[in-house]
User: What shape does this take?
Amino acid sequence: MLDTDQESVVSQFFQIHPETPQPRLIAQAVEIINAGGVVVYPTDCAYALGCHLGDKKAMERIKRIRQLDDKHNFTLVCRDLSEIATYAKVDNQAYRTIKAHTPGAYTFILNATSEVPRRLLHPKRRTIGIRIPNNPIALALTASLAEPIMSTSLIMPGDDIPLTDPYEIRELLQHHVDLVIDGGYCGMEATSVISLLDTVPEVLRQGAGDTSDF
Assistant: This one.
Protein backbone atom coordinates (compact mmCIF):
# COMPACT_ATOMS: atom_id res chain seq x y z
CA MET A 1 0.00 0.00 0.00
CA LEU A 2 1.32 3.40 -0.97
CA ASP A 3 1.69 6.18 1.57
CA THR A 4 -1.11 8.73 1.51
CA ASP A 5 0.80 11.85 2.49
CA GLN A 6 0.82 13.03 -1.12
CA GLU A 7 -2.93 12.70 -1.76
CA SER A 8 -3.16 16.44 -2.39
CA VAL A 9 -1.10 15.83 -5.54
CA VAL A 10 -3.00 15.12 -8.73
CA SER A 11 -0.52 14.27 -11.44
CA GLN A 12 -0.45 15.92 -14.82
CA PHE A 13 -0.38 13.67 -17.88
CA PHE A 14 1.63 14.65 -20.95
CA GLN A 15 1.52 12.72 -24.21
CA ILE A 16 4.94 13.40 -25.71
CA HIS A 17 5.93 12.15 -29.15
CA PRO A 18 8.48 9.32 -28.72
CA GLU A 19 10.62 10.40 -31.70
CA THR A 20 10.13 14.19 -31.90
CA PRO A 21 9.32 15.43 -28.38
CA GLN A 22 7.33 18.68 -28.31
CA PRO A 23 9.61 21.41 -26.88
CA ARG A 24 6.70 23.09 -25.06
CA LEU A 25 5.85 19.91 -23.14
CA ILE A 26 9.51 19.18 -22.41
CA ALA A 27 9.89 22.69 -20.97
CA GLN A 28 6.80 22.21 -18.80
CA ALA A 29 8.11 18.86 -17.56
CA VAL A 30 11.44 20.46 -16.63
CA GLU A 31 9.59 23.18 -14.73
CA ILE A 32 7.88 20.48 -12.69
CA ILE A 33 11.20 18.76 -11.95
CA ASN A 34 12.85 22.03 -10.94
CA ALA A 35 9.93 22.82 -8.65
CA GLY A 36 10.52 19.62 -6.68
CA GLY A 37 8.21 17.33 -8.62
CA VAL A 38 8.46 13.58 -9.07
CA VAL A 39 7.93 12.49 -12.67
CA VAL A 40 7.41 9.24 -14.52
CA TYR A 41 9.23 9.27 -17.85
CA PRO A 42 10.28 6.77 -20.53
CA THR A 43 13.78 5.49 -21.17
CA ASP A 44 15.09 3.01 -23.72
CA CYS A 45 14.53 0.12 -21.29
CA ALA A 46 11.50 0.94 -19.16
CA TYR A 47 9.58 3.73 -17.50
CA ALA A 48 11.45 5.40 -14.65
CA LEU A 49 10.77 7.62 -11.65
CA GLY A 50 12.86 10.76 -11.66
CA CYS A 51 13.43 14.00 -9.77
CA HIS A 52 15.86 16.88 -9.39
CA LEU A 53 19.38 15.83 -8.40
CA GLY A 54 19.49 18.08 -5.35
CA ASP A 55 15.96 17.53 -4.06
CA LYS A 56 16.01 15.34 -0.96
CA LYS A 57 12.25 15.54 -0.39
CA ALA A 58 11.50 14.36 -3.92
CA MET A 59 13.98 11.51 -3.50
CA GLU A 60 12.24 10.48 -0.28
CA ARG A 61 8.90 10.43 -2.11
CA ILE A 62 10.36 8.08 -4.73
CA LYS A 63 11.70 5.84 -1.99
CA ARG A 64 8.26 5.68 -0.39
CA ILE A 65 6.57 4.86 -3.70
CA ARG A 66 8.94 1.98 -4.30
CA GLN A 67 9.44 1.14 -0.61
CA LEU A 68 13.21 1.42 -0.95
CA ASP A 69 15.68 1.40 1.90
CA ASP A 70 18.69 3.68 2.30
CA LYS A 71 20.94 1.15 0.56
CA HIS A 72 19.21 1.54 -2.80
CA ASN A 73 21.44 3.06 -5.46
CA PHE A 74 19.86 5.72 -7.63
CA THR A 75 21.13 6.32 -11.15
CA LEU A 76 22.08 9.65 -12.70
CA VAL A 77 20.57 9.83 -16.18
CA CYS A 78 22.81 12.13 -18.22
CA ARG A 79 22.52 13.80 -21.61
CA ASP A 80 26.07 13.18 -22.87
CA LEU A 81 29.64 12.20 -22.06
CA SER A 82 30.68 15.69 -21.00
CA GLU A 83 28.02 15.71 -18.31
CA ILE A 84 29.16 12.33 -17.00
CA ALA A 85 32.64 13.77 -16.37
CA THR A 86 31.14 16.31 -13.98
CA TYR A 87 29.72 13.63 -11.71
CA ALA A 88 32.03 10.65 -12.20
CA LYS A 89 35.76 10.08 -12.48
CA VAL A 90 36.34 8.88 -16.03
CA ASP A 91 39.80 7.84 -17.22
CA ASN A 92 40.66 7.38 -20.88
CA GLN A 93 39.79 3.70 -20.96
CA ALA A 94 36.42 4.21 -19.25
CA TYR A 95 35.72 7.12 -21.60
CA ARG A 96 36.27 4.95 -24.66
CA THR A 97 34.08 2.18 -23.23
CA ILE A 98 31.22 4.53 -22.40
CA LYS A 99 31.48 6.34 -25.74
CA ALA A 100 31.24 3.04 -27.63
CA HIS A 101 28.06 2.01 -25.79
CA THR A 102 26.06 5.20 -25.39
CA PRO A 103 23.40 6.21 -25.77
CA GLY A 104 22.21 2.74 -24.87
CA ALA A 105 20.78 0.32 -22.34
CA TYR A 106 23.71 0.39 -19.92
CA THR A 107 24.32 1.68 -16.42
CA PHE A 108 28.01 2.25 -15.68
CA ILE A 109 29.33 2.14 -12.12
CA LEU A 110 32.07 4.73 -11.59
CA ASN A 111 33.81 6.53 -8.78
CA ALA A 112 31.86 9.69 -8.01
CA THR A 113 33.14 13.25 -7.87
CA SER A 114 32.33 15.70 -5.11
CA GLU A 115 29.45 17.04 -7.24
CA VAL A 116 27.33 14.02 -6.30
CA PRO A 117 25.32 14.39 -3.07
CA ARG A 118 26.48 11.91 -0.46
CA ARG A 119 23.00 10.43 -0.07
CA LEU A 120 23.19 9.15 -3.66
CA LEU A 121 26.45 7.27 -3.22
CA HIS A 122 27.04 3.62 -2.47
CA PRO A 123 27.05 3.43 1.35
CA LYS A 124 30.51 1.83 1.52
CA ARG A 125 32.18 3.19 -1.59
CA ARG A 126 31.91 6.60 -3.25
CA THR A 127 30.48 5.15 -6.44
CA ILE A 128 27.54 6.16 -8.59
CA GLY A 129 25.56 4.64 -11.44
CA ILE A 130 25.54 6.69 -14.64
CA ARG A 131 23.66 6.18 -17.90
CA ILE A 132 22.78 7.89 -21.19
CA PRO A 133 19.55 6.34 -22.45
CA ASN A 134 18.77 5.95 -26.13
CA ASN A 135 15.39 7.64 -25.81
CA PRO A 136 14.57 11.04 -27.36
CA ILE A 137 12.25 12.08 -24.53
CA ALA A 138 14.74 11.27 -21.78
CA LEU A 139 17.55 13.02 -23.68
CA ALA A 140 15.36 16.08 -24.33
CA LEU A 141 14.53 16.29 -20.63
CA THR A 142 18.16 16.12 -19.54
CA ALA A 143 19.27 18.58 -22.22
CA SER A 144 16.64 21.12 -21.15
CA LEU A 145 17.29 20.48 -17.46
CA ALA A 146 21.05 20.96 -18.05
CA GLU A 147 21.88 18.40 -15.38
CA PRO A 148 21.19 14.71 -14.72
CA ILE A 149 17.85 13.32 -13.60
CA MET A 150 18.07 11.30 -10.41
CA SER A 151 16.28 8.12 -11.41
CA THR A 152 15.21 4.60 -10.59
CA SER A 153 13.18 2.09 -12.62
CA LEU A 154 9.43 2.15 -12.02
CA ILE A 155 9.14 -1.24 -10.36
CA MET A 156 6.41 -1.33 -7.73
CA PRO A 157 6.81 -3.19 -4.42
CA GLY A 158 6.30 -6.92 -4.93
CA ASP A 159 6.77 -6.71 -8.71
CA ASP A 160 9.72 -8.10 -10.67
CA ILE A 161 9.32 -6.02 -13.82
CA PRO A 162 8.64 -2.32 -14.45
CA LEU A 163 5.20 -0.93 -15.26
CA THR A 164 4.74 -0.40 -19.00
CA ASP A 165 1.30 1.17 -19.56
CA PRO A 166 1.22 4.97 -19.01
CA TYR A 167 -2.54 4.91 -18.35
CA GLU A 168 -2.13 2.19 -15.73
CA ILE A 169 0.74 4.18 -14.23
CA ARG A 170 -1.42 7.31 -14.04
CA GLU A 171 -4.26 5.42 -12.40
CA LEU A 172 -1.95 3.88 -9.81
CA LEU A 173 0.25 6.87 -9.05
CA GLN A 174 -1.83 9.96 -9.85
CA HIS A 175 -1.84 11.00 -6.18
CA HIS A 176 1.83 10.21 -5.63
CA VAL A 177 3.70 11.79 -8.54
CA ASP A 178 3.42 15.21 -10.17
CA LEU A 179 3.67 14.16 -13.80
CA VAL A 180 3.28 11.03 -15.91
CA ILE A 181 4.77 11.25 -19.39
CA ASP A 182 3.18 8.98 -21.96
CA GLY A 183 5.99 8.25 -24.38
CA GLY A 184 4.56 5.03 -25.77
CA TYR A 185 5.86 1.54 -25.14
CA CYS A 186 9.53 1.57 -24.16
CA GLY A 187 10.20 -1.96 -22.93
CA MET A 188 10.23 -3.71 -19.60
CA GLU A 189 13.80 -4.91 -19.14
CA ALA A 190 16.40 -3.38 -16.85
CA THR A 191 19.71 -2.04 -18.10
CA SER A 192 22.87 -4.06 -18.13
CA VAL A 193 25.09 -2.85 -15.29
CA ILE A 194 28.80 -2.55 -16.01
CA SER A 195 31.42 -1.74 -13.38
CA LEU A 196 34.26 0.42 -14.66
CA LEU A 197 35.98 0.65 -11.28
CA ASP A 198 38.85 -1.62 -12.34
CA THR A 199 40.97 -1.91 -15.46
CA VAL A 200 38.79 -4.67 -16.89
CA PRO A 201 35.03 -3.91 -17.12
CA GLU A 202 32.87 -6.25 -15.04
CA VAL A 203 29.30 -7.16 -15.94
CA LEU A 204 27.33 -6.93 -12.69
CA ARG A 205 23.91 -7.50 -14.24
CA GLN A 206 22.87 -8.76 -17.65
CA GLY A 207 19.96 -6.71 -18.93
CA ALA A 208 18.78 -5.16 -22.15
CA GLY A 209 22.21 -4.10 -23.39
CA ASP A 210 24.49 -6.53 -25.24
CA THR A 211 27.46 -7.36 -22.98
CA SER A 212 29.32 -9.73 -25.31
CA ASP A 213 32.15 -7.28 -25.94
CA PHE A 214 32.92 -6.38 -22.31
Summary: Residues 23-34 form the longest helix (12 residues). The CA atoms of residues 18 and 183 lie 5 Å apart. The longest strand covers residues 47-52.
